[in-house]
Amino acid sequence: MTTLTNPQVRRARDSARTRKKLRKAALNATAAVVFVLAMFPVYWMVSTGFKTNDQIFTTEFIPFPTSFTFEHFDRVLSEGVAGNSIWLYLRNSAIVALGTVAVGAVFSLLAATAVSRFRFRGRTSFLITLLIVQMVPAEALLIPLFLSVKRLGLYDQLLGLIVVNVGLTLPFGIWMLRTFVAAVPKSLEEAAWIDGASRFTTFWKVLFPLVAPGLVATSIFSFITAWNELIFALVLMSDPSGYTMPVALQYFFGQRGTDWGAIMASSTLMTIPVIVFFLLVQRRMVSGLVAGAVKG
Amino acid sequence: MTDTSIARRSHRPQKASGLNPKLIPYVLLIPGVLVMAALLLYPMIQAGIMSFQKVGIPQIRDVNPRPADWVGWENYTKIFENDIFWSALRNTLVFAFVAVSLTLIVGTGVGVLLQQLSKRVSTVLIVAIMFAWAVPPVAQGVIWRWLFDAEAGIVNWALNLLPDFLSNALFGRADWTGVPWLNEAYTVYIALIMTVVWASFPFVAVSVLAGLKSIPNELYEAARVDGSSPWRTFRSVTYPLLKPVFAVLTILSIIWDFKVFSQLYVLLNGPTNRLAFNLSMFSYAEAFRPPPKMGSGAAIAVILTIILLIVTAFYVRQMIKSEEVQ
What we know:
The structure holds two protein chains of two kinds. Chain A has two domains: 7-69; 84-289, MetI-like fold (Orthogonal Bundle). Helix content of chain A is 74%, strand content 0%. Chain A contains twelve helices and no strands. Chain A has helices at 7-49, 53-56, 71-78, 86-117, 123-133, 138-151, 158-183, 186-194, 199-228, 231-236, 245-250, 260-289. Chain B has a domain at 84-289: MetI-like (MetI-like fold), CATH 1.10.3720.10. Helix content of chain B is 72%, strand content 1%. Chain B is built from 15 helices and two strands. A two-stranded antiparallel ribbon of chain B has the order 1-2. The relative contact order of chain B is 0.12. Mean pLDDT of chain B is 87; it is low at 1-11. At the A-B interface, helix 1, helix 4, helix 5, helix 6 and helix 7 of A face helix 1, helix 2, helix 5, helix 6 and helix 7 of B. Chain B: Its main location: membrane. Chain B: Belongs to the binding-protein-dependent transport system permease family.
């Protein structure tokens, strides 16, 4: 056959190839649009933080900070807001988030092991409770917890905020970690058992190392939740020296205009650790969040 | 298989720890259950009780607090007579409906797009949408408040780029400089929808992508051989297989969007514009704005909880029925 020289076939083949190319170009163009829409607000936050005030307060569009400056970062780290450097608020946020993770990781690992390694009475009710408590709005807990925290003398203390955040993050932590524990084949533990390892050794030497990546992902999720938490920090902290970042940011919005350079610099500082964590555990976080649904 | 059966099969004598293996799961659950009981269940019950009480300054002051008065349904009847409640309810429902729909549509679109792209391009795009997803809610509010700024905001700058006749025909104005977005409830919610959809579509996209990857290729080949159109393939192959994923994504989006607080708090500059409250903000404002009306705040929170439970009951039942909870 002379397919290669047959003009009709060649035309058909060429048009198929062009169509394929066009399709690819269209897909990549759409991807570029999504890229810009997703990234622009983040870029705008960072670049505003590096602009001088006359490039910030203008009706013009200045895509790149040609007047590149560290003045806003310097100012928020030295003078800060509400009487303290931004460092203090970042530190408070870190203490609360790390404290939450330290307690939450242990508790959620124990509970997740219980629900995915044992069948026992009350197991299903426990899982359903986990689902339902996640639906309860923070406001429903806010008022009673505010009164309890005051009564316990934890008002205005970071410890109070840690305790509350452990409660807020634990149900989801157990829910997420449960699937990671379930993913470890039971036969490994059974083998260790038969070889004479104790229950604790089996847990510590066999299960724990295999669940560790999932535990890291879950912990990072709790860290981010506690790091971002606004409403409880707003209510439980009255002294500025105990503010976390989300609360401190509110104090940049003054009566007479807002210092946008400073607030963007601070927001950038608050966002950096979260983005780093996200990129680290991106894949596992998704599998944990939609766990069970995807495995089909 | 439980641990006891293994022990029997291997003829191992019970460890001398003295702990009945049946009790082990309960011991493991103690810390978690205590935390949840003390920090979630007890406060929930308390909120329910408080919604029938009058709790103000005399009841919450540190020195010599007075016991709360039982007022029956008074908090609820007062709330139902309050116009702000009805506008807050409408804001909550309309916002959740629009934001959830847009998030799912945009997210699914981007998820399908990610699957069609080459490996390199899709990795770059995933990292990019990850940035939007990772921004803390308060910072999201800050960013979009700046984008919607009346004078220096990019949104007004972009609208000024529209040809005058088009802008006039669509919006009745050509000059957008100085137009405030965050003063009126209606426009605040446009900004809030943009903020929330921007921040939450990446999660949907990445989850849909994960779901798509789990569908075996043979099914698509079979569909192609049978001459199925792309839309038909999506409807008959992709959608049914991804249904569980969509169920989870929908329920999570609904839960998140009903309770949106941080972004609205920043866009509104605190609980200022009462007409733009949603139920979360209304509850917070009642309870913590002077004079504090904690009973009334609790009642609003109870109403919000009930609405959420009703809306999500269907999906929770689905999840309980499926293997999720088994």
